[in-house]
Amino acid sequence: MTINTHFTGLCAGIFLTLGSLGVYAAETESHMAQALKHTEAATKAADGKAIAEHAEAANTHVKKSLEHLTAGSTSLEQAVEHGKQGHTDLAKKAAEEAEKHLKAAQ
After folding, report:
1. 9 in a structural domain
2. Rounded to whole angstroms, how far apart are CA atoms 32 and 27?
3. In a domain, 71, yes or no
């Protein structure tokens, strides 16, 4: 392989890495934040089709957020039960699960 081939491969690797960071950031954005962005876009859209597309996307994220809230509540109930029974490790694990769901629902 020549130096030019190595350089091209290195540039491609850097490009792919930077591109994947943008995708990761979008995936980690909370469902409520995404729902709000789509709702705001719907209010600014100029035609019915665009409004419907953004409203549908927003509603999908709202429903996902509700799923996380429900799962978070279930995990909190488990944390209470385990805590009252003196199962510290299980209570802590359930509370950590609740925290993950509630952060995802924000």
Report:
1. no
2. 12
3. yes
Residue at 15 is within a domain: no
Residues of the domain holding 51: 30-105
Q: Are 16 and 89 in contact (CB under 8 A)?
A: no
0.70 surpassed by pTM: no
Tens place of pLDDT per residue across the chain (106 aa) = 556 555 555 455 565 555 544 433 345 588 899 999 999 999 999 999 999 999 999 999 999 999 999 999 999 999 999 999 999 999 999 999 999 999 888 8
DSSP 86: T
Query: In CATH, what number is assigned to the domain containing residue 50?
Result: 1.20.120
